[in-house]
Amino acid sequence: MSRTRVAAPGQTPRRGGGRAVVIGASIAGLTAARALIEHFDEVVIVERDRLPDGPTPRRGVPQGRHIHLLLAAGARALEDLCPGIIEDMTAAGAPSTGVDRARLCFNGHRLAKPSAGERGIGATRPFLEWHVLERVGSEPELEVHDEVAVTDLVLDDDGARVAGVRVQDTGRADDERTMPCDAVVDASGRRSPTPRWLEEHGYEPPPVDEVPVDVHYATHLVEQADQALAGDHIVAVGPRGEVPLGGVVLRVEDDRAIVTLYGLCGERPPRDLAGLESFATRLPIEDVAEVVREGDPVTDPASFRFPANRRHRYERLRSLPFGLLVTGDAVSSFNPIYGQGMTVAALEAVTLRNLLAEGGVPSPVRWFGSITPVVDRAWDVAIGADLALPCVPGRRNWSTRCQNAYVEKLHAAARHDPTLTDRFFRVSGLSEPASRLLRPGTLARVLRGSMRR
Length: 453
Hints:
Elements: E1 19-23, H1 27-37, E2 42-47, E3 69-70, H2 72-81, H3 85-91, E4 96-98, E5 102-106, E6 109-110, E7 119-122, H4 125-137, E8 142-146, E9 148-155, E10 162-169, E11 177-180, E12 183-186, H5 194-200, E13 208-223, H6 225-229, E14 234-237, E15 245-252, E16 256-263, H7 273-280, H8 287-294, E17 296-297, E18 302-312, E19 324-326, E20 332-333, H9 341-359, H10 364-386, H11 398-413, H12 418-428, H13 440-452
């Protein structure tokens, strides 16, 4: 089936520019489409799933039932792309979530809570996707075709530029057809076919960096979140040392909370509530176990596995077809316990919009060079934290070991210093670079905290 969403009659495109195709209606695809709308006459999202008629989970997003957090940097980027959307989501019940309403425990240390801080959005993944789809889908330049799969790229006669894509309705192999276009944005996620397509068309596929983590999730929803969380919005307990376990509770829409327990390196949380409560008691603070024990469950626990951090190094390729861009998890996917994926996708979409405004469709070299700093910041945070766990395989050079030793001291000092909590949260939330934690004022606070210990 193919479905088209268009705006009300009477609206006209803002300016010309041909047609762009976006593969995937994820947050990455929707935000990329919003950026493209300002440059192209027509933008088409092609999604192989059947899109729901409301904020409900869909089959093509296997992690959609699990915890997601739009970090403060992501909320700012999304608001920049779709002015007013954050207010719309909070009016619809999504909590505005910040470190001042969070109970954080990292490296076994409960961090002091600041009185104020940056704010993200707490909501379920279907809620977030639905609101972005409704906003972007109201643009007159956009069409959305669901239950349609992209099967290949179409290049020009010289093989140097994108000329279209091959598509077919899902479940049918006899109706493959060409959709001409001037640009393609692959936002299809971790299983992106672009590396294979490049190889089939005579291009070199990108090299891949991978750090295995073998994360297993178990997640369920509870009602009366305000009562269960005593007014807070987040409980986040990270893994530590030889105990690669963690848990997160996040207040979401409809006065509910989503509870996720996870284990790395083969540790697997059970899929029954009694087992989850026992699993949660292994964490260094009791807060998550209390929510599991006292919360009123409204769903059965659902499981999910994430095998490895993965990054496709497109920026290292010498040649790519002009008009082919890749974004979101199709470029890099991070250990989901850090909640970076949607934020990185939104930041990449802002980068795309800015590049289009400066000079039209960017060359692949310019595109991948421009998003590399965004990816680097998230990748360094995730990989650095993962390699602090002895069970995670990977090379630990002198810099990595020093960084992780310093972060442990920072967490210990932040038990009594809410300013350190706020600064760490800004870095891990991608609002500021990691170098922020090495400024003299922060170093002095960590040193004083170490002396206090």
